[in-house]
């Protein structure tokens, strides 16, 4: 069967005659107009497969040649290894022979040289003979003995700190002076620290005594009003590691409809600033969970920047009051006024919060509070005048007593002088 021409790119068309019965049988299944296309595809597929088969054959050849080269290389390496080991053994034998010839303890060259120079009667034996006074060893021994052997040796003398000519003597003296100075400084610091500690203990004791006084006076007032009074100066409160607030009063719950209202008192017997005390009062309120804070000071000189300026009583914003409880006269009137006014303000605030203020005449209460504060101021002024007057009267009384004694003495003297003289 003969089919049409097949054109290959860049080549002239060629004619193909197919006589293979199997191929012809397969081609007969295609329509006549499609047989040329089928033959072309079959040729293309066959040629590609043939090319791949030839490539695989080439790869197998390369693999066989590589394995052959590897085997030859392994043989060569084994041969070189054996040769190297043989050479190494030969070299080892040569080195051993050289070492024996030079260092053998019986026949070695080195042993013969040592005997020749250092052996008995050798060329250098005299240098190391300690019995020979001219030998180097004997001379070194004598030098070392001179410097180190006895207590009178040079090194011992140089290292003796008690030897005035020794460098260590001046060093010892300097160290002793420094240690003495340090000891003196330490003793001075210890003395100062001890004095400071004693003063601090006195101040602490003094402060605790005044705290106890304040608590005792507040407790007297609280007992009458039915309030609860507790000393808290040694207890930490709500703030971290804070003991602000020496006395806490909880107002009688029967008057607060069971609401908790607290007044905190801060006692001060040491000199401090007014601003510092106001700050402590704010801290005391927070620390004790109180609504009102009262600072109680031991005298007019306690506040170094406001001496005598606050009188015996002074109100401050945000529920804070200062009052004086003189530790010398212990007159609690100012403390009582501060306590009761703070209590009244808190109760009025509670009633206003609960919208019960219509049952209370707030204006008249505020007027009365103002009058109480004014009367307290007048009281303090008059008391101050009276104290000064009392001092003057006491002084006058002392002078009168002294004059009386003088007059009596003079009268006695006059009486003695007016006695008649008895002549013998």
Can you describe what's shown?
Helix 8 (333-353) packs antiparallel against helix 9. The protein has 424 residues and is an alpha/beta fold. Among the domains are: 16-103; 210-402, no CATH class. Strands 1-2-3-4-6-5 form a 6-stranded mixed sheet, sandwiched between helices. Strand 3, helix 7 and strand 4 form a beta-alpha-beta unit. It is built from 9 helices and 6 strands, in the order ααααααβββαβββαα. It is flat, with a radius of gyration of 62 Å.
Protein topology:
Elements: H1 21-27, H2 35-103, H3 109-118, H4 136-149, H5 154-159, H6 167-225, E1 228-231, E2 247-250, E3 262-268, H7 274-288, E4 292-297, E5 313-316, E6 320-324, H8 333-353, H9 362-417
Parallel strand pairs: 3-4, 4-6
Antiparallel strand pairs: 1-2, 2-3, 5-6
């Amino acid at each position: 069967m003969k089919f049409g021409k097949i054109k290959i790119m860049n080549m002239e068309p060629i004619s193909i005659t197919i006589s293979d019965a199997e191929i012809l049988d397969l081609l007969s299944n295609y329509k006549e107009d499609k047989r040329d296309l089928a033959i072309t595809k079959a040729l293309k597929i066959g040629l590609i497969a043939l090319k791949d088969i030839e490539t695989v054959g080439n790869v197998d050849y390369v693999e066989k040649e590589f394995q052959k080269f590897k085997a030859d290389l392994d043989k060569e390496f084994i041969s070189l290894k054996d040769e190297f080991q043989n050479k190494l053994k030969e070299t080892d034998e040569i080195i051993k022979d050289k070492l024996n010839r030079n260092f053998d303890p019986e026949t070695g060259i080195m042993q013969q040289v040592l005997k020749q120079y250092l052996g008995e009667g050798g060329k250098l034996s005299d240098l190391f003979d300690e019995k020979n006074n001219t030998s180097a060893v004997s001379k070194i021994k004598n030098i070392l003995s001179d410097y180190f052997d006895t207590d009178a040796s040079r090194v011992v003398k140089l290292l003796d700190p008690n030897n005035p000519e020794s460098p260590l003597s001046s060093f010892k003296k300097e160290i002793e002076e420094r240690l003495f100075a340090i000891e003196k400084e330490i003793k001075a610091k210890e003395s100062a620290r001890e004095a400071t500690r004693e003063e601090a203990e006195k101040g602490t004791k003094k402060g605790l005594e005044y705290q106890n006084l304040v608590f005792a006076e507040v407790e007297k007032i609280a007992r009458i009003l039915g309030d609860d009074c507790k000393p808290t100066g040694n207890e930490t409160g709500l703030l971290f590691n804070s003991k602000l607030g020496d006395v806490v009063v909880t107002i009688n719950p029967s008057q607060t409809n069971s609401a908790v209202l607290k007044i905190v008192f801060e006692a001060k017997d040491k000199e401090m600033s007014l601003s510092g005390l106001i700050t402590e009062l704010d801290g005391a309120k927070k620390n004790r969970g109180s609504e009102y804070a009262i600072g109680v000071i031991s005298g007019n000189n306690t506040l170094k920047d406001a001496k005598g300026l606050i009188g015996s009583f002074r109100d401050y914003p945000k529920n804070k009051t200062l009052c004086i409880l003189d530790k010398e006269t212990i007159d609690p009137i100012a403390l009582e006024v501060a306590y009761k006014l703070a209590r009244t303000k808190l109760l009025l605030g509670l009633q206003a919060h609960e919208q019960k203020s219509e049952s209370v005449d707030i204006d008249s209460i505020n007027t009365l509070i103002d009058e109480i504060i004014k009367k307290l101021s007048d009281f303090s002024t008059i008391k101050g005048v009276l104290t000064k007057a009392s001092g003057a009267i006491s002084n006058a009384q002392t002078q009168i007593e002294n004059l009386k004694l003088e007059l009596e003495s003079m009268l006695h003297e006059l009486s003695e002088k007016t006695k008649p003289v008895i002549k013998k």
